[in-house]
Amino acid sequence: MRYLPLTNKDRAEMLDTIGVKDVNALFKDVPKQAFVDGSVNLPNQKSELEVERIMGEYANQNITAGDGPFFLGAGCYYHHVPASVDYIIQRSEFLTAYTPYQPEIAQGTLQVIFEFQSMIAGLTGQDVANASMYDGATATTEAALMAQRVTKRRNIKISGVLHPDYRKVLDSYMKNFGDVVIAEGEPTEEDACVIVQTPDFYGNVQKLEKLRAACDKTGVLLVVVVTEIVSLGLLPAPRCADIVCGEGQSIGLPMSYGGPHLGFFAAKEKYLRQMPGRLCGETVDAEGRRSFVLTLNTREQHIRREKATSNICTNQGLCALAFTVHMALLGEDGFKRLARINHERAGKLYDALTAFKKVKLLNKTFFNEFTIELPKDAAPVVEAMVDEGVMAGYAHQNKLIVAATEMTSDADIEHFVQSLEACLG
Amino acid sequence: MDSTVEKVDFTHMNEGEHAIGPQRGLNYETKLLWEYERTDDPAVDFEEPSSFRNRTGLDERKELGLPQVKEPTVVRHFVRLSTKNYGIDNGFFPLGSCTMKHNPRLNEKMARLAGFAHVHPEQPVETVQGALELMYDLQHTLGELTGLPAVSLAPAAGAHGELAGMMVIKRAHELAGNTHKTVVLCPDSAHGTNPATAVTCGYTVRTIDTKGTGRLTVEAFKEALGDGKDVAGMMVTNPNTCGLFETEILEIANMLHEAGGYFYCDGANFNALVGNIRPGDFGVDVMHLNLHKTFSTPHGGGGPGSGPICVTSDLAQFLPVPHVKKTQHGTYDLERERDHSLGRMKGFHGQFGMHVRALTYILSHGADGLKQASQDAVLSANYIMAKLKNHYHVPFEGPCMHECLLTDKKQKEQGVSTLDIAKGLVEYGIHPMTVYFPLTVQGAMLIEPTETEPKQEVDRFIAIMTRFAKQTEIGDTEIFHDYPLSTPRRRLDEVKAARQPKLKYSAAEQDE
What CATH number matches the domain at A65-81+331-424, 3.90.1150.10, 3.90.420.10, 3.30.70.60, 3.30.420.40? Predict the structure, then answer.
């Protein structure tokens, strides 16, 4: 087996040093019935070439975003990732490092986290950001749990249309505590937080002022969710929020059939000690040099155990690195420009559809995604459009949610409209 | 301290000399991204859209607070930062309970195939049959390896898997009307995530005392169980965090089951068992696996992980959705709703890229390779224990499983602590073992060599540890408190970091 360096001579020497005859003697504490009889029922080892062939067969059965015009979004977006991003994240020292618990030999990871936190805090208009979360859906649930800790209230309000997966994750976590009511509507004094996604699941940009005022009146925390982080290059920073969280996959990460992606989480400084997840802070070393270290970990499970703010242990370290590298390449002007291009592409798609009388465009506002009402169920239309080589969007009843990004060409838009017309007959 | 590096006296520099900076040799001091000169344009050269109209209903944003540099600066910045890091590829990494084994690059190559990387989770299922088949096959494979046939790949990490697993147990009790079962038993040696998870799941924790023995005993278990009426389950790592297999596990599992509780196994230490021993055969009902430990997906400096859960067929109905199933036509589909499912654990379908890597690893090893791997891992840990037991205190007699536990009891008397030994290893270019864990053992050093470490490297580690012990014995201890000396940074002021939290770059503060 190509990854196992011990030789038979090594093994014999080691057994001899230990003072046992064979390796089975080391398993004497394990009850007989727990051993596999012979070997597990799987094929034996394979060469690298054989494995590549097998994996290639799985991969080749999938239609990929590069195969044709692509308009799916709904919380996961097809963007261009510069070549240097993947090169950097495959640097051994980043890829094969552990969580930076030994800061003297982990300054690379730590400074990247510090830079990531700085970028997220800046983009979201918040005071502090953590080192990342599993994904946007779990980050949103963690925001609700944090609001419950801060306000000592239980209930949760949803304003507008939240991504259905985010809502379902929230439901399943809150089900662990019998007393939580999650409902749509205006915040009341029973609520810990109100969660609002902007742009919402249908792509509508939300105005936050009224909701902020309602939160102030009732002592409720305002949680703003962003599932397409590129939108923050064009839309005003949601400064008025108490917590801003969401999904950063669009920057640096492939869609990868849904993961690994990148949850982000930012909040007002006054809630710092109730935040979940890892935080990296600046300090100095024994020689007074600027250094970085994981800090405020008395919130975390490995110290606080059952009193921790969250059971979360890991972040999405390498994904946060990919984000930080991509963001460094984009820079201030590049990120704004990327956002403008996305908006312009979506606008072009929108305009191309206005002449098409069989569909109705439901959005008054949008960023790079909007919703089309079809005269019939959307799912079969999407499937029919696959046969035309177009990945049309997210089907929800008679609605089709479509996204355009910098990857969307004029030809793609033309192809989309023709194919939609053909499929609607 | 005795430093061979010439100190640069910034206060007496001539004008312009500040540009020289403190850099020496290959020890690069790296600015923050914001501290480089801002370039006119960014490194990504998209063209401005020709016809832009704002249809967001809001004013366009002006300031983002991002840096701006060109590609050479970006690449150099991150490459230099990388050189301040230590990974498995740099050297030995015997971090107990973390299974820092070699991360095959084939896994990375496979995850980057366009058919995996550029697939959207909401594509119609007929366009992603390969991805679904891969997930189905991984579900089956993990079921076969654990003896727990029902598998969900949804959880994003180990702790997330723990939560999903405990939610399975909670739903099972709810369906059975066991609302009085509100307590979860955890040994005092458990990973911190276990009690934290039980609480996140709405349970209270009762601790099983394992101090003194390093193992669960029937006696201590009985004590914690009481009459068992309020006990929903037990969370146990096996092999445990002292590196030992729980010898009385069958009897304990039986008693727990008789009291109507479920046995949750924390799979962090599955590398000791894989391909050889199946947790389903020692009484486990639910367990999570860390694909980033046993199945070699990279730790990435702290994630992404992946924490599938494996449960008995009785508990299958409670697993998270979506779940991959095979239809009667031989195609694959996503089951998005199920009556008693605990619901969703994350957006979309789990850390799919990690599933690709883990299956690549499993195919490479096969049944024979996996078994050899776990045997080599156990052999190596016992070898270290045998070599070091005369120099360090061994709190619990072996044989150990894939990690061995030592303490600083002997060295502490001479003023050298586990922390000093850890920092000494850093100085010698070895990543320290897990220190001060488990909490039940004072000055714990938990050493997990893994099967991918060549014997020569293990021998070097043993030689260094032996030298440390001998140095301490003769009172040559001063140097330990200064370690590490040759690393990119020396010991850090962690108190300052916590007292005056500075968690982001701020232009104003830098100008002060």
Answer: 3.90.1150.10
Which residues of chain B are within 8 Å of residue A97 when distances are taken between CB atoms? 85-88, 299-301
B305 and B352, same structural domain?
A: yes
| B296 and B158 in a common domain | yes
What digits encode the pLDDT tens for the residues B319-333? 999 999 999 999 999
Q: What is the rounded distance in angstroms from the CA atom of residue B233 to the CA atom of residue B255?
A: 11
Which residue range forms the structural domain that includes residue B248? 106-363
Say yes or no to pLDDT of B5 above 60.
Answer: no
The 8-class DSSP code of residue B15 comes to T
The answer on B380 and B297 residing in a single domain is no
If pLDDT is split at 50, 70 and 90, which confidence band does B10 have? low
Q: Is B480 helix (H, G, I), strand (E, B) or coil?
A: helix
Query: How far is A24 from B272, CA to CA, in rounded Å?
Result: 12
pLDDT tens digits along B56-70: 999 999 999 999 999
N-term to C-term CA, chain A: 58
Interface test with A, best of B489, B493, B505 (most A CBs within 10 A): B489
Q: For domain A85-324, give the CATH number.
A: 3.40.640.10
Which residue from A minimizes the CA distance to B66? A332
pTM for the whole structure:
0.96
| Among B363, B395, B412, residue at a domain's last position | B363
Give B26→chain A minimum CA distance, Å: 15
Interface of B with A in 221-240 (CB under 8 A): none
Cβ of B257: how many Cβ atoms within 10 Å? Answer: 13
- Integer Cα distance of B63 and A177 in angstroms: 42
CB contact under 8 A, A1 and B369: yes
Q: Is the pLDDT of residue B3 over 60?
A: no
**Average pLDDT across chain B, whole number:** 94
For residue range A111-163, list pLDDT tens digits in order: 999 999 999 999 999 999 999 999 999 999 999 999 999 999 999 999 999 99
Cβ of B376 within 8 Å of Cβ of A311? The answer is: no
| Contact across the interface for A104 and B121, Cβ inside 8 Å | no
Statement to judge: residues B250 and B155 lie in one domain: yes
Q: Would you say residue B250 lies in a domain?
A: yes
Domain borders along chain A are 65-81+331-424, 85-324
Q: Which two tokens stand for residue B361?
A: 């690893």
Q: Is B108 on the interface with A (CB under 8 A)?
A: yes
Please report residues of A whose CB lies closer than 8 A to that of B379.
6, 11, 14-15, 18, 23, 26
Q: From chain A, pick out residues whose CB is under 8 angstroms from the CB of B98.
A: 98
Do B173 and B79 belong to one domain? Answer: no
Taking CA atoms, B168 is separated from A178, A310, B204, B238, B319, in Å, by: 16, 19, 16, 20, 6
- For residues B115, B108, B358 and B384, what is the CA-based torsion angle, rounded to 10 degrees? 180
Under DSSP, the state recorded for B486 is S
B349 in A contact zone (CB under 8 Å): yes
Q: What is the mean pLDDT of chain A?
A: 96
ipTM of this model? 0.97
Q: Using a CB-CB distance cutoff of 8 angstroms, which residues of chain A are in contact with residue B93?
A: 98
Confidence tier at B24 by pLDDT (50, 70, 90): confident
**Distance from C-alpha of A351 to C-alpha of A348, rounded to nearest angstrom:** 5
Contact assignment for B126 to A64 by CB distance below 8 Å: no
Residue B134 inside a domain? The answer is yes
- 3-class state of residue B215 by DSSP: coil
According to the model, what pLDDT value does residue B510 have?
A: 53
Candidate from B86, B124, B144 with C-beta closest to A41: B144
Task: Give the model's pLDDT for residue A149.
Answer: 93
B-chain residues near A28 (CB < 8 A)? 399
Polymer length of chain A: 425
Q: Which residues of B touch A106 (CB under 8 A)?
A: 84-86, 301
